[in-house]
Amino acid sequence: MDIEKLNSSEATIEPYSIKLDFFEGPLNLLLHLIQQQEMDITEISISAITDQYLEYIELMELLDLDLASEFIVMAATLLQLKSQSILPTTQPDTGENRQFKDRQELVKHLLEYKQFKEAGQALDRYADQNSLTYTRPEIEGVSDWREYEISATLFDLISAFQTVTIRPNFGADDDYYEEIQEDPITVEMQMDFVQRLLTDNKQIRFSELFSEFGSKTEKIATFLAILELVRLQQIMAIQSDHFTEIYLQRKVA
Amino acid sequence: MDSEKKNFEDDSLIEKDEAQQTDQADLSESEIQAILEAVLFTASEPISVSQLRSVFDRAISGHAIRAQLRELGQFYDQHQRSFQILEIANGFQICTRPDYAAWIEKFHTRQVRVKLTPSALETLAIVAYKQPVTRLEIEEIRGVNSDSVLNSLIEKGLVRISGRKQEAGRALLFSSSNQFLEQFGLKNLSDLPSVEEIQEILDQSESDLNND
Amino acid sequence: MDSEKKNFEDDSLIEKDEAQQTDQADLSESEIQAILEAVLFTASEPISVSQLRSVFDRAISGHAIRAQLRELGQFYDQHQRSFQILEIANGFQICTRPDYAAWIEKFHTRQVRVKLTPSALETLAIVAYKQPVTRLEIEEIRGVNSDSVLNSLIEKGLVRISGRKQEAGRALLFSSSNQFLEQFGLKNLSDLPSVEEIQEILDQSESDLNND
User: Fold this and answer.
1) What share of chain A is helix, strand, coil (3-state, %, to 5)?
2) In a domain, B75, yes or no
3) How far apart are CA B129 and CA B124, in angstroms?
4) Is residue C74 located within the same domain as residue C140?
5) Which of A194-198, B9-13, C96-100: highest mean pLDDT?
6) Rounded to whole angstroms, how far apart are CA atoms A19 and A230?
7) Fewest C-beta in 10 Å: which of A15, A134, B55, B155?
8) Are residues B40 and B80 in the same domain?
9) Strand positions, DSSP E, chain A
10) Please, which residues 28-47 of chain C have a Cβ atom closer than 8 Å to chain A?
11) What beta strand segments (E) does chain B contain?
C-alpha cells in the first residue's frame, strides 16, 4: 500500500482528512457488500467477503478518510474467520481479539443488525407520512429538525467512486505519481467547480463528474470535494435505489 | 405520572368562580364533545386522556372521554372534513389529512420534516425496540462507537436518559421519548412496526421508487 | 382512527409532482371548501380572500371563495361545533366560540403549571444534586435571588423543606421530594445521572455544534 507515498507526494490532498460524522460502522459496510453482490446473508462466503472488505478498507485509507478502529478490528476478525474456514479442523479456536467465534455467529449478528437497520428505514417512512399531517399552529417556536440529508450512504459514494476509477489496484501504480505530482487541482477548486455546475444544472450525475477528468488526483480531489460539500450541507447525494446512479443536487435550505 | 397531575388540580388554586363557570355536573354528551373539541383545537400537541380529564376535574371517566373523541373523529370522517383526530404519542390531536398537505404547503411554508442520517435512524430503532438499553448494548449491535450519534439523538429530544442499570457498573439507560412518538406519528410503543410490517413498508417504498 | 398513518399505499402522493396534486381545474365545491378549511386550520392569523385565491393560483373567484367560507361557517353553526369562522381584520379565521373560553383557559393554565421554566429546572437540579441545600447556597450557585422560584417548586410539590442546618443561623434545608422522583421517572436519587455524565453530554453537544 502506498499511502505514505501518496500523502507525501500530494500536498494538495493531505490537509483534507475528512471527518465523517455520518460514518457508518463495519457491519454496515459488510451488509453493503453483501447486498452489492446480491448474496443471501446466510449463504455468504467468508473468503469472498473478506477480500472485498479489505479492498474497500484500502481504498478508504488511500482517500485518507478518518477510519474508525472498529474497521480494523473487523478486518482482523474476518481474516481469522477466513483462515479458520480454510483450515477448519487443524486450527483450534484461540478466541482472542475477535468479535465473532465463527461464521455462524457473524451471520447471526449481521441478521440482527440488518433488522434494526430496516426498522430505522421503516421509521423514516413513518416520519415521511407524519410530515403530511399539519397541526394547529404552535404557540412557541418550532424546534429545529434540520439535519443534513444523505439518501445515498457513504458506502454508496465510495462504491460509485470505485467504479469511475480503475479497480481494484487503484493508486498502486508508482509511475503514475510522478506524473500527477505537478497536478494543480485542489479539493477547494473542485468544490468550487461542483458548486458552479450546480448553479447551472438542477442535478448532475455523479459519474459524469468524473468522466471528463484525466488524472487520478483530480478524481480524488473531486471525490473529496463532494464528500466535503455533503458534510457542509451544500449538496445532497441522492440514489433512487441501491447501486444505481447517484445524483448530486444543491441542498435546498 | 397521573398522580402528580391530580395533586396539581387538588391544590385548590383554581378560582372559585371559574369552578362555577365550568361545572361539569350537568353536561350533556354533546357538550362534553364540544369542550374536548375546543381544547384539542387550541392545542398544538397531542393531549393525553388524563390531561383532558383534568379539564372536567376528573369527574368524567377516561372511558367516556375516549368514547366522545371517537365520535368526534367519526363525525369529521363522515362529513369529510379536512382534519381528523389522531391518536399519537399517548394522546389525541386534531391534524389535517395527508391529502391536503400539498394545498397547505402552497400557502404555508412546508413544515420541516424529521430527517435523520442512516446511522441515527438505526440507533434510534435500537433504542426504541430494546429500551431501556445501555450505550454498550447499542454499540454491540451496531459494531461501532455510537457516542456522538446517541448524543445527537438526545439533543434532538428523541432519546432520553431513563435511569441506571441496577447491576455492577450502573451504566446509564436510554429510552425513547414522547417526542419520538410524536414526530414519527406513533400511538405508543406497542405501535412500533413488527418485523412483518417493516418488510411490507420497505417493499412498498421500493415499488414506489421503481414506478417512477 | 389510525387508518391514515398506516396508509402507506397512499404515499405515492409524496413522489408525484406537486402541481398534479394541486390542479384546481376539476375541483368540486366541497373540495374547495375542505381545502379552505385546511388552510385556515393551520393558520394562526386571519387570511384574506386574496391570499386564499393564491392557493388556487387565482383560478377561483373571490366571490366563490366567500361563498364556500360562508357555507363552511354555516356547517359549523348547524352542527354546533366549538369553533366558527370569523371575518376579522379583512380576513377569515377559525376561532373557538366564546362559550368555551372558560374551559380552554382551565386547560391551558393547567398546562403552564405542569411545565417548568428554565430557571425552575436549574434550581430543581441544584436541589437534586446538592441536597440538602440552603437557599443561600442555591443563590450562590445561580447568582440570582431564588426565593420565588424555590417557593413555586415547593408549591408544586417537587421540593420539600427537609430540616435546618445545625450551624449558626440554622437556615432551612431543601431537598427533592418523592414526587420529583416520580415525575422524572427515577427510582431513587442514585438514578440521577452524575455531574460528569451530564458534562460529557453537554461537551459532546457543544463540539457537535462547533463542527457545523
Assistant:
1) 55, 5, 40
2) yes
3) 9
4) no
5) C96-100
6) 12
7) A15
8) yes
9) 203-205, 235-239, 246-250
10) 38, 41-44
11) 83-88, 91-96, 159-164, 172-176
* Cis? peptide before B132, omega within 30° of 0: yes
Note whether B132 and B178 are same-domain residues. Answer: yes
We report the CATH number of the domain holding residue C140 as 1.10.10.10
* C19 and C58 together in one domain: yes
Q: Does the residue C110 lie in any domain?
A: no
Q: Quick one: C76 and C133 in the same domain?
A: no
Q: Which three cell numbers stand for residue C211?
A: 463542527
Asked whether residue C14 is domain-assigned, the answer is yes
Do residue B131 and residue B186 come from a single domain?
yes
Q: Subunits with at least 3 CB pairs below 8 A relative to chain B?
A: A, C
Q: How close C172 gets to chain B, by Cα (Å)? A: 24
B116 pLDDT band (50/70/90 cuts)?
Answer: confident
Q: What is the pLDDT of residues B125-138, one digit of tens each?
A: 999 999 999 999 99
Min Cα separation B168/chain A (Å): 23
Domains held by chain B: number: 2
Percentages (nearest 5) of helix, strand, coil residues in chain B: 55, 10, 35
Query: Over chain B, what is the mean pLDDT?
Result: 83
Angle at alpha carbon of residue C114, lines to C108 and C118, rounded to 5°: 110
Cα gap C106→B54, rounded to integer Å: 9
Min Cα distance A85 → chain B (Å) is 22
For chain A, domain boundaries: 3-250
Q: Write down how long chain A is.
A: 253
C185 in any annotated domain: yes
Cα C128 to Cα B4, B26, B167, C158, distances in angstroms: 18, 44, 23, 10
Interchain CB distance below 8 Å, C211 and A135: no
Q: How far apart are CA B183 and CA B89, in angstroms?
A: 9
Interface mutation target, options A124, A125, A251, chain B, most CBs of B under 10 Å: A124
Q: Which of B195, B204, B181, B205 is nearest to B90 (CA)?
A: B181
Residue C158, pLDDT score: 81
Same-domain check for residues C75 and C29: yes
- Identify the domain containing residue B87 by its residue range: 7-97
Task: Tell me the C-alpha distance between B125 and B114, whole Å.
Answer: 14
Q: Which helix (H) or strand (E) holds B33?
A: helix B29-41
Whether the predicted pLDDT of A1 surpasses 80:
no
* A29, B144 contact by CB (below 8 A): no
Q: What is residue B24's predicted lDDT score, i.e. its pLDDT?
A: 58
- Buried b vs exposed e over C87-123: b needs ≥16 C-beta within 10 Å? eeeebbbbebbeebebbbebbeebeebeebeeebebb
Contact partners for chain A, using 3 or more CB pairs closer than 8 A, are B, C
State the pLDDT at residue B19: 42
pLDDT at C81 exceeding the cut of 90 = yes
Provide the pLDDT for residue A147. 32
List pLDDT tens digits, range C158-187.
Answer: 888 888 887 767 888 899 887 777 666 566
| C-alpha cell, A154 | 457513504
Boundary of a domain, candidates C49, C68, C97: C97
Q: Which residues of A touch B193 (CB under 8 A)?
A: 119, 122-123, 126
Contact at 8 Å (CB) between A228 and A174? no
Q: What does each C-alpha distance from C187 to A214, A247, B4, C180 come to in angstroms?
A: 65, 51, 16, 10
Query: Above 90 in pLDDT, residue C77?
Result: yes
